[in-house]
Amino acid sequence: MQRIGVFVCWCGSNIAGTVDVKAVAEALKSEPGVVFSTEYQYMCSQAGQDLIKDAVKEHNLTGIVVCSCSPRMHEATFRKTAAAAGLNPYMVEIANIREQCSWVHKEMPLGTEKAIILGKAAVAKVNLNAPLTPGQSPVTKRALVIGGGIAGIQTALDIADAGFPVDIVEKKPTIGGKMAQLDKTFPTLDCAACILTPKMVDAAQNENIRIFSYSEVEAVKGFVGNFEVKIKKKARYVDETKCTGCGACIEKCPQKKVPNEFNLGMDNRRAIYIPFAQAVPKVATIDADYCNMLKNGKCGVCTKFCAAGAIDYKQKDEIIEEKYGAIVVATGFEPISMEKFDEFAYSQSKDVITSLEFERLTNAAGPTAGKLLRPSDGKHPHKIVFVQCVGSRCASCAEKGKEYCSKICCMYTAKHAMLTRDKYPDTDVTVFYIDVRTPGKNFDEFQRRAVEEYGVNYVKGMVGKVTPEGDKLIVRGSDLIANKQIKIDADLVVLAAAIEPDKTARPLATMLTASMDTNDFFTEAHPKLRPVESPTAGVFLSGTCQGPKDIPETVSQAGAAASKVIGLLQKDMLLGNPCVASSNQLMCNGCSSCERVCPYGAISYEDKEFPGPNRTVKVRRVATVNPAVCQGCGACTVACPSGAMDLNGFMNSQIMAEVDAICK
Amino acid sequence: MENKYLKDDIIRSSGVNPKKCMKCGKCTATCPSFDEMEYHPHQFVYMVESGDIEPLLESESLYKCLSCFACVDRCPRGVEPAKLVEAVKLSVIRQKNSNRLKADDVVKYLDEDIPQQAIVSAFRKYSK
Question: ipTM greater than 0.90, yes or no?
Answer without folding.
Answer: no
